[in-house]
Design brief:
The protein is an all-alpha fold. It is built from 17 helices and no strands. The protein folds into 2 domains: 9-238, no CATH class; 249-471, no CATH class. Mean pLDDT is 84; it is low at 1-8 and 449-471. One of its GO terms (molecular function) is xenobiotic transmembrane transporter activity.
Length: 471
């Protein structure tokens, strides 16, 4: 199997750690911001169709978010496996793992797409979608479901690129896709000339079309060997044993991300119980906070890649030092982001909402309460990223389950229902859960995790926790 080109990519196992971390993290953060641009572009054009169209897109978001979360977990596995072999300079195995990761994610996404397409009406009935928007929501999400293989394919492409330290190409492709989506949205939504207007389904079709372009470009780059990988069609012949190991590594990450998605839905349900004003304030505030933690997610993904490459290069000391840099950088970075959000809470809320003073005032208070604890979210995300890079996706999953389902949701329920805080207990639950989860994550990191089987070498005795390896 031909070795990949290394003219644009080199292992991140030498040189200043902080520079390598930021070199990876900044393009990842920018790419994630561009991904949120899809939602803003859709909201801009769909908003001109009326309230029913906006509601149809909104009710479909949690379901699609959950399905994408399932696929994202396996992209984490692909990234870690590729990074480990790339750090070890086992270039033929890098290509083999990349091809098999694509085969795995395509197989799983096809099954999920078919099942979700036919289950779409049932899913909408389960969440209580009314008859006024049911047909619109069903058409919108069925188109998105058919595009899941393309969505998963591009997620895997980005993950494989991260694994070899190449993060700029996915950024450029994201930028191109966003620009194309802005042009295709009005064309497919409203129609022009021979192209019929499809309404909200047109917005979904525009998204799927840009995803198709992204996947084609990504696959072409990998087949040509210009992106740090050099795939061949022969390499896509299924390797069942390797795909099974990748599945075992990726499944906990899928549960991890799905638990976050479900946690978001449960918090929304709690907010719903306090009426429209509280629900609207929660919706606006949570959207702003989600944007605020994007830098932490970028640092976490960069940390995973650096840790995996350094462990592959037999540099556990450097891997642990990388985790320390990630934790410190994320804490300080999110501290600054939180301060900026706190100071600009009012104009930021006004950007998303105009004309409702009660909702705006409550949303500003929510944002200001929760923004101060964003830095602790950065700590947890960095520790989770380090665990994933070490192959301990189960540990990262447990941190998420504990922070979401053992800490935040019960705290939110108790504070809002059994204290004088009332619905503001929902706001303070973010602070309490973030601080407690960060403390738990730090203790986990400092004490070291229990040995985990190495997903890359099933014959190896064990893969110890980062803290134990450094010792």
């Amino acid at each position: 199997m031909p070795a990949p080109s290394t003219t644009t990519t080199a292992p991140l196992t030498e040189g200043p750690i902080l520079r390598a971390l930021l070199r990876l993290a900044v393009p990842i953060v920018l790419a994630n911001l561009l991904q949120t641009g899809y939602q803003l572009v859709d909201a801009y054009w769909v908003g001109r169709l009326g309230a029913n169209a906006v509601a149809a897109v909104a009710v479909s978001f949690p379901i699609n978010f959950l399905l994408v979360a399932l696929g994202s977990g396996f992209s984490v596995a692909g990234s870690v496996l590729v990074a480990r072999h790339f750090g070890a300079r086992d270039l033929p195995m890098v290509n083999h793992v990349a091809a098999q990761s694509l085969v795995l994610t395509l197989s799983l996404s096809l099954l999920l797409a078919v099942g979700a397409y036919f289950a779409s009406p049932l899913l909408l009935r389960l969440i209580g979608v009314g008859p006024d928007i049911f047909p619109l929501a069903n058409r919108f999400q069925q188109v998105l479901f058919l595009g899941l293989p393309l969505n998963f394919g591009f997620l895997m492409f980005q993950a494989l690129m991260r694994g070899v330290g190449q993060v700029r190409l996915p950024l450029y492709i994201n930028l191109l896709a966003l620009a194309l989506n802005f042009l295709l949205d009005p064309l497919f939504i409203y129609g022009y000339g021979p192209v019929p207007g499809l309404g909200v389904a047109g917005a979904a079709l525009a998204t799927v079309g840009t995803q198709a372009l992204s996947v084609v470009l990504g696959l072409a780059l990998m087949l040509r060997g210009t992106a740090g990988l050099k795939l061949s069609f022969r390499g896509f012949r299924p390797d069942t044993a390797l795909m099974l190991r990748a599945f075992r590594l990726g499944a906990p990450s899928s549960i991890d991300l799905s638990a976050r998605a479900l946690g978001f839905s449960m918090m929304t349900i709690l907010a719903t119980g306090f009426g429209t004003t509280v629900l609207a304030a929660y919706g606006i505030g949570s959207r702003l906070l989600a944007l605020g933690i994007i830098p932490a997610l970028g640092i976490s993904l960069a940390c995973s890649t650096l840790v995996a490459q350094n462990l592959g290069a037999q540099r556990p000391d450097r891997a642990r030092q990388t985790a320390r840099y990630a934790i410190g950088t994320s804490f300080l970075g999110l501290l600054l982001v939180g301060a900026a959000i706190y100071a600009a809470a009012q104009p930021l809320v006004r950007f998303f909402l105009a004309g409702d003073e009660a909702v705006a005032a409550e949303a500003v208070q929510f944002v200001r309460i929760a923004a101060a604890s964003l830095c602790f979210t950065g700590v947890q995300q960095s520790v989770s990223g380090a665990l994933r890079g070490a192959g301990n996706t189960l540990g990262a999953m447990l941190l998420t389950l504990i922070s979401t389902w053992v800490l935040q949701f019960p705290i939110a329920w108790y504070l809002s229902s059994h204290t004088a805080l009332g619905f503001r207990g929902l706001w303070w639950s973010f602070v309490a859960a973030n601080v407690l989860a960060a403390t738990l994550a730090l203790l986990w990191f400092l004490r070291g995790s229990r040995p985990q089987p190495d997903p890359l070498q099933p014959q190896a005795d064990a893969l110890t926790g980062l803290a134990e390896e450094a010792g």
